[in-house]
Amino acid sequence: MTFVAKSAKFTSPSDATHWGGCFHENGLFIILHVTGNEPDQAENIDLSATSSELAANRGKAILDDILSRSVDIKSWDLKSVESMLEPYKENSKVTAAALGVLTPEGILYLCSTGHGIVWMERESKAGKILDSGISSSGIIKDGDRLLFISDTFSHIFDHDLREQIFDSTDPDEAIEIVAEAILDKPEISGMSALFITISENAEKKSVLDTFSVIKSSGKEKFVHYLSNVKNIFRGTEVSETHEEIKSKRTLLTIAAVLVILLLSSIFLNINHAVNTKREENYTQVMGLVSHQYDEAVSLIDLNPTRSRELLSSSKLSLSGLLSQFPKNSKEYKDINSWLGKVSEEEMAAYKIYKLTDVSPFYDLTLLKTGGDGSYIAEYKDTKAILDISNKVVYTLVTSTKKGQIVAGPDTVKDAKTIDVHGNDIYILNSDGIIQVDSQSGNARVIIKHDDKWGNIVSLAAFGGNIYLLDVTHNTIWKYIATDTGFSQIVSYLNSDTKIDLSGSTKMVIDGSVWVLAPDNLLKFTGGQIAPFAFSGISDKIESIASVSTGDDQQNIYLLDKSLSRIMVFDKTGVYQSQYQWDGFKNASDLVVSEQEKKIFALVSSKIYAIDIK
User: Would you give the distance in Å from CA 440 to the centre of its chain?
Assistant: First the structure.
């Protein structure tokens, strides 16, 4: 079986420091992003060029080098593919590169450096098959679609845009969608994207193609042939002798038998060819899976991200192979057994902790009959809980399990967000921002309601300053602490930072500001959007109910109620682990204390504490 790869390319104009390019020919796919900056004396480029020319010259020189070395490769494998980018892995001016090779046998080899990534869509399911700085390989299938981009632009290539791209069967149409979506964004200078569709080569029909024709119409043709034979018998002239008629009938009978034997032979040969091709594919895939499985198992502790990539690739290959064999066949049973083995190792590689018997850590009804927690915030071992239905604020010192009510309906009113820092608890209601002393319960309005506010969905206190997430005006308001109180209202976001915050639900701060969008986590640093994307996991992250992190935390914790789990990522977006428990589907909020080594989940009137592993 041979495959045809059809591609379309998008390259945005270079600026003073960025150049992007892409290439596709004879099964070789490349995207490349480089920076200009200062020239290196060792580089074979014009040192008198301007910075924008320098970036372009550097990029073209690197691309030419890769292409010239690729000509010498007679037989591709993962090692030879990796060697193409090896000279540039430590080159800080190569910000992203992704290279793929599709062999005549249908194996796709991939590697990247910097922020180069590859997405694949197969049978309406899309996932990342190549992440920054790693290598991967797998079996390609008819109808597969590939998208080569830089991870730096993952916030642009969000879930909706990827869906639109992969819905398109025409690469040129897909790239038009890319261009329309991102050309008005200033951060795309020097960006490139390569979209590829894979199909079987229709110009080289094999015996299998012939078989499909015979299978669909052979019966009708054979019946038609027998009908013609019958008509010949009927059409025999009366003038012929009895012996002549008998002779003709004998010859026709022999001819009919020979035709039947010939058709039987063709069908047997075709069936043999189909089985042979299927067995060859089975042997090839199982050999690759066995190799990937052994490597993945050996890397679970040393490099869990690489281990997960290998196991995910193996699972994809096995799933495609399973449908080719009947359920009662030996091959089907072997493939199913391998799927079980891969899934079992995935549990270890993905550090999935399944929780069963989780006991309540604290019950709010001990403080108030009918107590019901809505939101929870934490500062060290002090937890502040907002009860919207009863218009109450509770505090809980988790080191001693001492709880109390610190604010009632007269203070809380219509508050729907809460945070705590030191001894001060902050809530926001129709009067403004209220400060409550967690020890004495004394409350006062520290910032009056401002007409500039739209719909404020989250409040955060950090470094003495107060931040408000306003989804109406797509901004984050900031009040800076002064000796006499707080400054006038200012926007935390820079004037040139344009972002859609509608649908966002929560904000947490660790120096950077993290905003929980409907299907994504946005990171802002210094008032600007900062590159951030999830990696190291093939699952789609589409429904995040809450998020927790802080300046004293190494990781970010996400509550996914739809799949009853809490997912853990480091602050570069790399997947770390996850905790699964049926009770999480009813949780309203969570906070995490890495100092206490516990995840605290708020489920109605109860707080549950899960040990961090």
Answer: 48
Whole-angstrom distance, CA of residue 246 vs CA of residue 168: 65
Summarised one tens digit per residue, pLDDT across range 71-97 is: 888 889 989 999 999 999 888 889 899
Token digits of residue 354: 């399944």
The domain of 63 spans 3-200
pLDDT tens sequence across 270-283: 666 667 777 888 88
Tell me what pLDDT residue 366 has. 96
Strands of 526-597, DSSP E: 528-530, 546-548, 555-560, 565-570, 575-580, 589-593
> Given a cut of 70, is residue 219 above it in pLDDT?
no
Burial degree of 29 (CB within 10 A; 0-12, 13-18, 19+): buried
Residues for the chain: how many in total?
A: 613
pLDDT level of residue 208 (50, 70, 90 thresholds): very low
Rounded CA-CA distance 404/395 in Å is 6
Do 455 and 585 have their domain in common? yes
Sequence-ordered alpha helix ranges (H) in 193-241: 207-234
Residue located via tokens 């890769």: 66
**Calculated CA dihedral for residues 278, 284, 290, 292, nearest 10 degrees:** -120
Dihedral, CA of residue 334, residue 337, residue 341 and residue 347, to nearest 10: 140
Give the integer Cα–Cα distance in Å for 375 and 500.
Answer: 24
Give per-residue pLDDT as tens, 473-512: 999 999 999 988 999 999 999 999 999 999 999 999 999 9
Please name the residue that has the structure tokens 């590159």: 531
Angle (deg, nearest 10), helices 242-299 and 207-234: 160
Give the C-alpha separation, 192 to 13, whole Å.
9
Q: Say how far apart CA 572 and CA 485 lie, in whole Å.
A: 35
Co-location of 255 and 375 in the same domain:
no
Within this chain, do residues 307 and 451 fall inside the same structural domain, yes or no?
A: no
Quick check: 535 and 526 in contact, CB under 8 A? no
Domain count along the chain: 3
Shared-domain flag, residues 310 and 443: no
Helices in 468-538 by DSSP H: which ranges? none
Domain assignment present for 162: yes
Percent share of the chain, pLDDT over 90: 45
280 backbone dihedrals φ, ψ, rounded to 5°: -60, -45
pLDDT level of residue 251 (50, 70, 90 thresholds) = confident
Which CA distances in Å does 39 have to 47, 50, 89, 364? Answer: 6, 10, 18, 64
Helix or strand (DSSP H, E) at 447 = strand 443-448
Q: What is the pTM of this model?
A: 0.56
